[in-house]
User: What shape does this take?
Amino acid sequence: MLRWLIALLVVSAAPAMAQDAPSRGTIIIGFRQEARPFVWQDRDSGAYRGYLADLCYEAVLNANYLPQGVTITATQRAAFLQGKPEASGGTTPEIDLLCDPTTISMRRLSGFLRLKEPPDRRFSPIVFLANGTFSQRPRITKESLDRSDTDLTAWTCMGEGDASSATLLVGFVIGTTAEDEINELMRSPAKVLGSGDEPRWQRICSYEFKNHAEGVGRLCAGEIDLYFGDSDIVNAYAALSPSCNPVTRPKRTSYEPYAFVVTDRTPGFYDHFVKGLYASFGNDTKAQNRVRTYFPDQEISTYLEILYRIYRLP
Assistant: This one.
């Protein structure tokens, strides 16, 4: 698995960017509406902010294009990754670049190759390394797993039992890599969650939320037991609620290499954009400042530091 990830990283080093070259045109960037601290839309100003948002803007400008942003919801993102022009709630905007923490996977790579309708989609080199994990409400009791009074008609349930059985409720955002992890949770709870004193359950019911704010909000309200997602994203939305203290499970359940998705809507853009990424990461001061701005209380992981070093190879 690591072999093909490294192959995606090791692309040819970019030559120096010509700062005085004329603009090559306008690039439409689809910015995820809510994926703090990576990318989100500020409610007051309408501006797009976040670690990846800054990187998208900078790399596009480095490539001598003019960036123009449009908002992408989680539902529209899922439709875009599947090659569907329509999403529930409206049409997915036509974009050159999806600025979003999208995990590279063999399933998605294969899906891009099978798409029959334009535009073609390609992953950029990896831009961040993260881990997906389960976060839970502070205390799960045997009594709290009694869902006999809960309407679960919109949920997907697996396992033995009915509404009177001990039922664990798990949430995630539409279009993420959660399905495999939830299946593994049902097969081997200890392997996924680690040791603990949680009561046993007979079945698991999962639900796709439209955004992280809603999903984490339901976790904070005690309406669901577990929430799967990037721990940085979960903690960012939990911090918006002073009384919310979800427990992040110590076991990291999935490896999440994030990349951008680039279309062929603008001929030649992909190669110029990759060079722009190299120019962005090649500036060590700016690269370190991006991390300190959006992850102020965290040390750069060994894996992320290796990623930065690969981008700085001469």
Confidence is low (pLDDT under 50) at residues 1-20. The chain has eleven helices and 15 strands. The longest helix spans residues 269-282.
